[in-house]
Amino acid sequence: MTHNLTQVDKQIPGINPNWPNIHQNVKTDFNSNVTLPDIDDSAFIHPFAIVIGNCYIGEKVLVAPTAVCRGDEGTPLHIGEFSNMQDGVVIHGLETTLNGNNLDDRRFSENGDLLKGNDSRFESGYSVYVGDNVSLAHGVLIHGPAFVGDNTFVGMESMVFNAKVGSNVAIGVSSTITGGVSIADGKFVPPGSVVTTQEQADNLPERIGSSYENINTAVIHVNKDLAKGYAKLWLDNASGLDRESMMEEGMLETSMSPLAN
């Protein structure tokens, strides 16, 4: 890949000029940890996608053009194996700590429990947790605190914020899920739904038998192949360069720059 960078771009601390779209976050009063993204070697991050800070991107994940995983406020952010972030998807979260104090109800455990700040699991929790084999279609917003279980499909232009979505769920296009609700495994959220109460969530129909019953299987198949193909295309043209090593080297070099302090 070729990027036209100015001299100023090359001096920005924590940004490797070879990967300007993937870089560390900055230190703030609500996030004292400066972290590089953790990206599996088999994942494909398009050069017009952005990955910042404490984001985990798993095996064969496709991060499409204009998708954003921004782990600089609420952290960490987790995108599981074989999932996909399609064009325009945004992953972000409300702050999880402030001045060294953990904030209640701002992180989920890996199994979907919403955590208080004094819970022993808080340190290993997630502002946003997206499981394995999850499809986040074009224009989706997942904003922490949020949890999305395995094998779930989130339709175009939908939003999940302050909510838990179970596994094997299908969310129709242009839906909103918020208000602290929890959607059980195997449910179907019809297109255009606004789910803001637990009663609404409990009354949702089953995915099996719905028009979205098999949609995620097809979407996962397509995007896994795309991730594999684009990753190979990049490697075939990268002259053996290793993304993670290059980023870490750039971080070390720029940390010694006068602009770093």
Write a brief caption for the model.
The chain is of the alpha/beta class.
Structure description:
By secondary structure, the protein is α/β, with parallel strands linked by helices. Helices cover 17% and strands 26% of the residues. It is globular, with a radius of gyration of 19 Å. The two termini are 30 Å apart. The N terminus and C terminus are likely disordered.
Compile the SSE list and pairings:
Layout: H1 7-11, E1 22-23, E2 38-39, E3 44-45, E4 50-53, E5 55-57, E6 62-63, E7 68-71, E8 77-79, E9 84-85, E10 90-93, E11 97-98, E12 101-102, E13 107-108, E14 114-115, E15 128-130, E16 135-136, E17 141-148, E18 153-154, E19 159-165, E20 170-171, E21 176-177, E22 182-183, E23 188-189, E24 194-195, H2 198-202, H3 215-236, H4 243-255
Parallel strand pairs: 1-4, 2-5, 3-6, 4-7, 5-8, 6-9, 7-10, 8-15, 9-16, 10-17, 15-17, 16-18, 17-19, 18-20, 19-21, 19-22, 20-23, 21-24
Antiparallel strand pairs: 11-12, 13-14
Strand content: 25-35%
Provide the succession of SSEs. Answer: HEEEEEEEEEEEEEEEEEEEEEEEEHHH
Helix content: 10-25%
Helix-strand makeup class: alpha/beta
Stretches with pLDDT under 50, minimum 5 residues: 1-11, 250-261
Largest sheet: 13 strands, parallel
Please report the number of helical segments. Answer: 4
**Outline type:** globular
How many beta-strand segments?
Answer: 24
Main attributes?
261 residues, alpha/beta, 7-stranded parallel beta sheet, 4 helices, disordered N terminus
